[in-house]
């Protein structure tokens, strides 16, 4: 069995968009952090129907971060499932997804 270590990142768009889609089953963690302005963010898992995993319309304060894997543990995805996200303003909230996929 091969294991691929995944690390993806970018900035949240202002509409719900797939940030990462699993090629193989795996476990992942999401981390978002904010810059100079208070922003509203939402993070979802999407196994075919988008389900919010962050608090609804989470107000992320200046300089704050939110880890989606705490206190619930890692996010488990099947092949084809995605982690989606959005913010109330595009390109102002950074995101990083880390994890492993098994093949």
| Low-pLDDT stretches | none
CATH fold call = Hypothetical Protein Tm1070, Chain: A
| CATH class wording | Mainly Beta
Q: How many strand units?
A: 10
| Cα end-to-end separation | 6 Å
Folded structure, characterized:
This protein is mainly β and 103 residues long. It has a single domain (12-90), classed as Hypothetical Protein Tm1070, Chain: A (Sandwich), CATH 2.60.290. It has no helices and ten strands. The protein has strands at 3-11, 17-21, 26-34, 39-46, 51-52, 58-60, 65-67, 75-77, 82-87, 93-102. The strands form two sheets. Strands 1, 3, 7, 8 and 10 form a five-stranded antiparallel beta sheet that branches. Strands 2, 4, 5, 6 and 9 form a five-stranded antiparallel beta sheet that branches. 25% of the residues are buried. The model has no long low-confidence stretch (mean pLDDT 89).
Blueprint (SSEs and pairs):
Elements lengths: L2 E9 L5 E5 L4 E9 L4 E8 L4 E2 L5 E3 L4 E3 L7 E3 L4 E6 L5 E10 L1
Antiparallel strand pairs: 1-10, 2-9, 3-7, 3-8, 3-10, 4-5, 4-6, 4-9
Quick summary of this structure?
By secondary structure, this protein is mostly beta strands. The protein has strands spanning 3-11, 17-21, 26-34, 39-46, 51-52, 58-60, 65-67, 75-77, 82-87, 93-102.
């Amino acid at each position: 069995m091969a294991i691929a270590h995944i690390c993806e990142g970018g900035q949240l768009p202002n509409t719900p968009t797939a940030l990462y889609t699993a090629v193989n089953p795996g476990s992942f963690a999401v981390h978002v952090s904010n810059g100079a302005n208070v922003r509203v963010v939402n993070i979802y898992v999407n196994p075919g129907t988008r389900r919010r995993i962050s608090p609804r319309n989470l107000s992320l304060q200046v300089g704050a971060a939110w880890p989606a894997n705490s206190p619930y543990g890692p996010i488990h995805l099947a092949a084809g499932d995605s982690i989606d996200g959005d913010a109330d303003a595009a390109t102002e909230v950074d995101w990083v997804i880390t994890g492993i996929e098994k093949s």
